[in-house]
């Protein structure tokens, strides 16, 4: 009887730079890891390889400068004031983007922050204080002076930063800060809006366009190829991250081709059918800070076919607790066998919480690789699709 289920291994790679043959590096590193002592492993069908998005983007050289961003913003906007609606509060994720956007706007930039926190849970004020003092606000939308008068200065508990002051300091003579909870408030300040929200961007766009605004979303900026710079035709600036002063790394492009090519090379080298995905932020929430990890537009921009869909599994503990006149083992075994015979589209009966496989596996990869100094941007997962009755 097998005693080990799913195993996720971080695979160490050399430092990957622009122009490197990433497919070759990943395959060679996996082969070396599998053969290493005492940590080696065997390749099996339906195992999974995850490659972090930053590795793919770096190999592609997918970078843009704040000047590139400013040029695109100037091209996409009209002269005059503009609203920048609901950006997340992050030095790594947004500060450089803000520098480029404000440089491209030919007028005042009205920076509208959502409250009491941004889209992924970074607070702009203390939440308890917000509920205690909300009655002191003149309206649901208010300016920086009123914010300071009611809430004073508040710093992020993890970074110690006052993000209102940080963002305004980018161009204090050009940026005016406001606070709102509805995207409709943007039209109080200007008729052209740059929607900076990530997961709600399409909803915010639809609302504002219905009200007659000219709307640009972050996925439209740096979305087309130009000589000497990166681009992403699907996500634009969404999923970008700080590289160095004045430069950001974009989310990788052409990931569908990359995962297909890597899967084929692994099949050629190992003889096994191994699924592959590119992963970014995991979809999980910090229980203390209340911050969602998912600042990328998706957990996985591309995966091979075996990772499309949702898990097709039983609710193990429920079946075991309700075995009736059967032993728990017998009940579980029969339930797994019966489930395997049903269509993946069959939603009857209790099952696991409905989540996409690519989101689950990508989140596991992100937790294992981390974003620090482990040096394991590739994850090898064994046994993920095994069930309790597979020996």
Q: What does this molecule look like?
A:
32% of the residues lie in helices and 15% in strands. It is of the alpha/beta class and 391 residues long. The strands form three sheets. The protein has a six-stranded mixed beta sheet with strand order 6-7-5-4-8-9. A hairpin with a 2-residue loop joins strand 10 and strand 11. The longest helix is centred in the last third of the chain and has 16 residues, at 255-270.
Topology, pairings included?
Elements: E1 7-11, H1 22-35, E2 48-52, H2 53-60, E3 63-65, H3 66-76, E4 82-85, H4 91-104, E5 109-114, H5 127-133, E6 142-143, H6 144-151, H7 163-168, E7 175-180, E8 192-195, H8 201-210, E9 214-217, E10 241-244, E11 247-249, H9 255-270, E12 275-279, E13 302-303, H10 316-321, H11 328-340, H12 357-369, E14 378-382
Parallel strand pairs: 2-12, 4-5, 4-8, 5-7, 8-9
Antiparallel strand pairs: 1-14, 2-14, 3-11, 6-7, 10-11, 12-13
Helix pairs in contact: 3-4
> Taking strands numbered 1, 2, ... along the chain, how are they ordered across the largest sheet?
6-7-5-4-8-9
**Poorly predicted runs of 5 or more residues:** none
Task: List how many beta strands DSSP finds.
Answer: 14
Written as H for each helix and E for each strand, in order along the chain, the element string is: EHEHEHEHEHEHHEEHEEEHEEHHHE
Largest sheet descriptor: 6 strands, mixed
Report how far the terminal alpha carbons are from each other.
Answer: 6 Å
Q: Helical element count?
A: 12
Radius of gyration, taken over Cα atoms and rounded to an integer in Å: 24 Å
User: What shape does the CA trace take?
Assistant: globular
Roughly what is the average pLDDT, rounded to an integer? 93
> What share of the residues does DSSP label as strand, in percent?
5-15%
Structural class: alpha/beta
* Helix share bin: 25-40%
């Amino acid at each position: 009887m097998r005693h080990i289920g799913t195993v996720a291994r971080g695979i160490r790679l050399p430092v990957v730079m622009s122009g490197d043959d990433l497919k070759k590096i990943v395959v060679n590193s996996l082969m070396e890891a599998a053969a290493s002592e005492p940590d080696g492993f065997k390749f099996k069908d339906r195992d999974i390889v995850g490659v972090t998005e930053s590795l793919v983007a770096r190999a592609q050289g997918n970078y843009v400068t704040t000047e590139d961003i400013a040029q695109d913003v100037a091209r996409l906007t009209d002269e005059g004031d503009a609203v920048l609606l609901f950006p997340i509060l992050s030095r790594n994720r947004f500060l450089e983007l803000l520098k480029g956007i404000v440089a491209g706007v030919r007028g005042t930039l009205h920076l509208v922050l959502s409250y009491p926190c941004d889209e992924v849970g970074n607070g702009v004020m203390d939440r308890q204080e917000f509920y205690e003092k909300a009655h002191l606000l003149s309206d649901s939308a208010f300016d920086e002076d009123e914010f300071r008068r009611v809430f004073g200065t508040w710093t992020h508990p993890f970074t110690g930063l006052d993000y209102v002051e940080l963002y305004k300091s980018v161009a204090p003579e050009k940026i005016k800060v406001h606070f709102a909870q509805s995207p409709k408030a943007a039209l109080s300040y200007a008729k052209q809006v740059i929607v900076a929200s990530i997961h709600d961007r399409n909803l915010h766009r639809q609302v504002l366009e219905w009200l007659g605004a000219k709307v640009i979303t972050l996925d439209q900026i740096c979305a087309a190829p130009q000589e000497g710079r990166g681009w992403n035709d699907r996500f634009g600036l969404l999923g970008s991250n700080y590289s160095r002063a004045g430069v950001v790394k974009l989310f990788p492009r052409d990931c569908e081709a990359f995962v297909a090519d890597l899967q084929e090379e692994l099949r050629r080298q190992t003889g096994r059918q191994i699924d592959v995905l590119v992963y970014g932020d995991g979809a999980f929430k910090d229980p203390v800070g209340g911050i969602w990890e998912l600042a990328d537009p998706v957990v996985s921009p591309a995966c091979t076919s075996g990772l499309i869909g949702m898990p097709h599994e039983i609710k193990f503990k429920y079946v075991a607790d309700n075995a009736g006149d059967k032993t728990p083992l017998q009940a579980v075994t029969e339930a797994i066998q019966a489930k395997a015979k049903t269509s993946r589209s069959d939603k009857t009966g209790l099952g696991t919480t409905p989540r996409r496989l690519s989101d689950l596996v990508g989140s596991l990869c992100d937790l294992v690789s981390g974003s620090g100094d482990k040096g394991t941007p590739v994850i090898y997962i064994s046994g993920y699709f095994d069930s309790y009755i597979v020996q």
